[in-house]
Design goal:
alpha+beta; three-stranded mixed beta sheet; 12 strands; nine-stranded mixed beta sheet
Length: 259
């Protein structure tokens, strides 16, 4: 998701959840953070275990990360994401983003800046208007648009039925509201998300701009697994990709597995 939430590194618990799907659902509902698989080269969260509400095909959603010698849940540079996406035979789609916080009046609101395919990847739909589209994130700074969460729409904007098309202020910028999501459109651990903006608006927030700060690893990555690929195949492929991308001796070199 950082963005995608902290994950308990508990292999025994994961096996128990798989043996008892109904129990898994109840655990996911009470734990919120869920259980996942972590190895030093690959931290991937099966959203089927986490049971996000309202996202179709949730069992195919994964969050990618790794551990280096200095960083747990290592994030990506934009160039890393581009390389992963373009040379990837494992995931049918990949999206990236960065967590941002903006003031709305005297209230701080949190929400990620994401690539334009983020909602399509999740399968999340708008309850009003539309979600973000690839054209919204086509060029840095080009489209100051925002999608509000159902909670933000109700608590901050009085459930205004005419909110779509209006301008709101986040930080010091005006954004046009293009849509409102339905309840349960965020990934587990992201329940505090109040809005989504294009990643190309990153320079308007107090976060690294992936285009200007190209050497900074600040991006989370979410992928949807291809239907014909297993989790173990994905984990093995990603581990191999990381070792090629970040060879031994580099600052982000992946460590050995610690299952």
């Amino acid at each position: 998701m950082t963005t995608e939430s902290l994950i308990l590194d508990t292999r025994y618990a994961l096996r128990g959840l798989r043996r008892s799907p109904l129990f898994a659902a109840s655990v996911a509902g009470t734990m919120g953070l869920g259980l996942g698989i972590l190895c030093s080269a690959f931290a991937i969260v099966n959203a089927y275990v986490l049971k996000p509400v309202g996202l179709p095909g949730a069992q195919g959603l994964y969050s990618l990360s790794w551990d280096s010698s200095t960083t747990r849940y290592h994030q990506f540079r934009l160039s890393d994401f581009d390389a992963l996406r373009d040379g990837n035979p494992i995931f049918s789609a990949l999206a990236t983003g960065s967590d941002v916080t903006a003031m709305h009046g005297d209230i701080a609101m949190a929400g990620p800046a994401v690539t334009g395919n983020y909602f399509q990847l999740l399968g999340a739909r708008a309850a009003m208007g539309r979600t973000l589209l690839p054209d919204d994130a086509a060029a840095p700074g080009a489209h100051a648009v925002v999608v509000l969460s159902d909670d933000a729409w109700r608590s901050r904007y009085g459930a205004d039925p005419a909110i779509v098309g209006k301008d709101i202020v986040l930080g010091r910028r005006h954004y046009q509201v293009v849509g409102v999501t339905g309840p349960g459109s965020a990934l587990p651990g992201n329940e505090s998300v109040r809005f989504w903006v294009p990643l190309t608006m990153a320079s308007a927030f107090a976060i690294p701009d992936p285009w200007r700060d190209s050497g900074t690893s600040s991006l989370f990555v979410v992928g949807r697994l291809r239907a014909d690929v297993t989790e173990s195949q994905a984990r093995a492929w990603f581990d191999s990709w990381l070792h090629q991308r970040f060879p031994a001796g580099s600052a982000a070199a992946p460590l050995r597995a610690h299952l």
